[in-house]
Amino acid sequence: MTRLVLGCIADDFTGASDLANNLVRAGMRVVQTIGVPLEPLAAEVDAVVVALKSRTLPTYEAVAQSLDALHWLLAQGAQQIYFKYCSTFDSTAQGNIGPVTEALMDALEGAPGADFTIATPAFPDNQRTVFKGHLFVGDVLLNESGMQNHPLTPMMDANLVRVLQAQCQRKVGLIDYKVVAQGEAAISARIAELRSQGVGIAIVDAVSNDDLLRLGPALKSMPLVTAGSGVAIGLPANFGLAPSSTASTLPPAKGLQAVVSGSCSLATNRQVRAFMDAGHPALALDPLALMADQLAGIDPAAQALAWAAPHLKNGPVLIYSSADPEAVKAVQAQLGVQAAGALVEHTLAAIARGLVALGVRQLLVAGGETSGACVQALGISQLQIGPQIDPGVPWCHAQSAAAPGEGLHLTLKSGNFGVDEFFTKAFKVWA
After folding, report:
1. What is the pTM for the complete model shown?
2. Were both Cys, which of 10, 29, 100, 211 would link to 84 (CB 3.0–4.6 Å)?
3. Which CATH homologous superfamily contains domain 249-428?
4. Residue extents of the structural domains in the chain
5. Which fold has domain 6-243?
6. What pLDDT was estimated at residue 2?
7. Are 115 and 108 in contact, with CB atoms under 8 Å apart?
């Protein structure tokens, strides 16, 4: 077994595969685990990504789970820890990005350099850039991108220094684009300067992949790195690794194809429309109708599966609860934010398990919370990371309790990622 060099903690399942995808493309052999493993690492890999479903948990639970993951990764010999969050910095006013970051720093206190870390969700390949400490999605500020309407973590401020400072006890500073453009020596000098000013965490500007590659060498001796998945492209070289196509090899794909979508992002809503415009069958789930069925003793998952069964033999099908922001708010007003989300997640997870029972072996899941619920319902404990479909979204391969003895190809897509034709494009990777 090779030594584990990078141990990663991701705050949701799609974010975990997003990070793993970038590490694989940069030459690392990666396994993604679903939750903290109970056993020691047995695979020959360079990096492990522990996928948690902690982004929207109460802060104390998110911290506890993250510390459990940290202790397991350290026990496997991880030389550097990477805390991964969303490229849109999804969080509430209380966290969980800041509290988890500080808890990890406290736990690593004895390691040289653990008194300081960086934070940047920059992912230029997916049009997430940070300039003067402000996060842009494409050409607009974060709070004008649609993220201000997120049903669970609405982002109302693009100033990341201000957002993170509200969540942290430590002082938050900035390493701006002028410093990053000068490379490793200038970045390291700025880190030393910020340390002398009592700063413990620094937002880092990055408007291109070149910025992230310049940042990478300056992070070589940092015990803890916190970021979106973009920073990952600059880290494998610190361990002497280079891009290799063999790192993303998966078994051949087979079986029926389906999409399950719970994301309400603008990107996913466009993908749903494009899938239907292409003539593929799609079934919409109405949360209010789900609640009515539940009260009447009707199983909405069984109804959806009965609809899907005759269509599957003709190509991919889509079952979705995605909706525009006003429709989401109307449902939340009647059911409550948490109750509405839990109802949809539970139903879609049951549908995903039922689809696999019907013979689906290529399953695409859209939405972070939905992905977490589906993976758990499918009894998946580990994912092997394969080829990229779009930036931040790879195909994976796993063994599922819903299909004993058979492999399942799975994609966990962040709601904001992917081109409009993503739902059809994904299956063409195997064509």
Report:
1. 0.81
2. 10
3. Four-carbon acid sugar kinase, nucleotide binding domain (3.40.980.20)
4. 6-243, 249-428
5. Rossmann fold (3.40.50)
6. 52
7. no
